[in-house]
């Protein structure tokens, strides 16, 4: 869903610094989608790229909705927009690689979110290695996981994709890329 994660300052109810304090949205009723979108902006989050293979080559998407759900068996999940072309490609291939992005990969995060010129289907110019399942792992990431789709669970406008982790490791990145209040953030460097 292009635009859904965009930083649209005009639609903002207020940055954390501008807000008066404790409050409820939507008069305490179950929050509507605009409210949830704005609330989600304030969940400071790590950023990852989920990538798979399709008939053109590779396809990737930026996600912040991901987590490790089980250590034993090793399993993670990522929530991918129901209309996303990447979701269709993941479901077709049955596997994906998830690279947790480092602070050197902001532009790539924008590219895979459709905010900057698209990544070419061969990932030319992007340092990557192939997982044993054949998916691109981004070399400058912090950590990476290669997964076989274990289950897909549609939930509203996103689908929760569970992946059994078949292979995992570290990239050359040292600090995480974070997303908060509609922009990328970095840990303070001393
Ligand atoms: C920081 C950031 C986090 C995002 N997190 C998610 C996410 O968790 N799930 C999702 O489906 N889209 C997320 N998006 C939006 C997708 O990257 C974007 O909609 C993308 O264009 C979908 O591409 P596709 O249709 O080729 O799959 C995020 C975007 C940004 C910039």
Précis, in short:
This protein is mostly beta strands and 190 residues long.
Structural account:
It contains three helices and twelve strands; from the N terminus they run αβββββαβαββββββ. The chain has a single domain, classed as Roll (Pnp Oxidase, Chain A). It is mainly beta and 190 residues long. The longest helix has 9 residues. The strands form three sheets. A seven-stranded antiparallel sheet has the order 3-2-6-9-10-5-4. Flavin mononucleotide (FMN) binds next to strand 3, strand 5 and helix 2.
Indicate the CATH class: Mainly Beta
**CATH architectural category:** Roll
Bound molecules: flavin mononucleotide
- CATH homologous superfamily heading: Electron Transport, Fmn-binding Protein, Chain A
**Which band does the percent of strand residues land in?**
35-45%
Through-space gap between termini: 38 Å
Tally of separate domains: 1
User: What is the arithmetic mean of pLDDT?
Assistant: 91
Please mark out the parts with pLDDT under 50 across 5 or more consecutive residues, or reply none. 7-12
Fraction of residues in helices?
Answer: 10-25%
Examine the coordinates and then state which fold CATH places here, giving the name of the CATH topology.
Pnp Oxidase, Chain A
Order of helices and strands: HEEEEEHEHEEEEEE
Shape: globular
Extended strand count = 12
Q: Output the number of helix runs.
A: 3
Question: How do the strands line up in the largest sheet?
Answer: 3-2-6-9-10-5-4
Largest sheet: 7 strands, antiparallel
